[in-house]
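Risk mitigation, structural track. In case the binding assays with pyridoxal-5'-phosphate fail to produce interpretable data, a predicted complex structure has been prepared as a fallback.
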Amino acid sequence: MTNTHDTGATLGLRTRLLHAGAPALRGGSGPVNVPVVRTSTVRFENTQALAEHHLRHVAGERVAAYGRHGLDTHRALEDAVTALEGGHRAFLAPSGLAAITLVFLSLLAPGEHALVADSVYSPVRRVDQTLLQRLGITLEYFSPAHDDLAALIRPNTRLLYLESPSSLLYEVLDLPKLSAVARARGVTVATDNTWSGGWFYQPLALGAQISIQAATKYIAGHSDLMQGIVVVDSPALAKTIATTYEALGLVIGADDAYLALRGLRTLPVRLAQHQRHATEVARYLQRAPQVARVFYPALPEDPGHALWQRDFSGASGLVSFEFRHADSAAAHAFVDALELFGIGASWGGYESLALIAAPGRLREHSHWRGSGPVLRLHVGLEDPQDLIADLARAFAQIDAGPTG
Ligand SMILES: Cc1ncc(COP(=O)(O)O)c(C=O)c1O
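Fallback model:
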């Protein structure tokens, strides 16, 4: 498998991610990195220049007439993530969830309907219940593996919202097939691409029109940033998103734009290493007698493996597993016994984390057939043998029982 971005006549994507936004040399020298341009506003030489900038901004050009429009650091990041996703234009949001909400609010009006894969990042349902329903927008959750998508599309369906592989159990979706059905009926297709960091998966090349990422995860890569990105594939969609983006007053700080750019420079090497370590951990878990099932699409035994092999060029550091005999108390005891894995909700940083999947969240996923507790691991960049030893120690502790 190759990363599709690496082919073609232009420079490879690795090269472009490293050099995106590099400042021009002035007077024979200059810094390596993009300057952090912190400002709340922009000064102009005269009133005519201000008026011209304003008109160009209103016409949809990426020029700043005010701080909220973002300056050089923002532009460099937008260009880099647009190249990463192979899109037309990027929008920067203060969190991954804000990026998701931006897409729903941009594409849907009162009385309209969206179809949402039932295995998506669970807080999407909170956006639905607390905001979209109040606006008279209907979200309907469907099973991408079992339901007939064409039969679910209504005359007022405007958006198909997906995530592949999905949250917690990594269900791999047939994006080309689902997109073809939706787009033939004029339904816009958006997908959450956080799992792949944009490096292992190019949804815009496979039929989606909007790719969303929580840059909080792999793009940032160091657990020190909250950020979301939305990349669209066309000028028409850029205009639709830009209108709502402006109305919501969305913007990110220049320091945060800089941190995301810094993360992007090392995204491919970090992800390759996450994949190596996660594969080792996943294989160990497959052999562990305390484990009923391992969820990791790069394993040949995973139900999504064939689709993953067809559409992805690699796998991230997220591995989940179902305990074989342990009840919820034993699963909690297992997590408490871990020393190297931190206990926490996020992922995508350099460090390993563990989180028990809430049973209610698993039940939202129509393809979930298990009964035991599920633990999600984010396999970080520590020595994988140390991580495996940590897991083995924790298994031994629960095998010994509460008094052992
Ligand atoms: C798949 C996925 N999408 C989106 C988000 C939301 O990102 P943020 O935490 O930056 O709002 C998360 C966060 O965990 C996620 O896992």
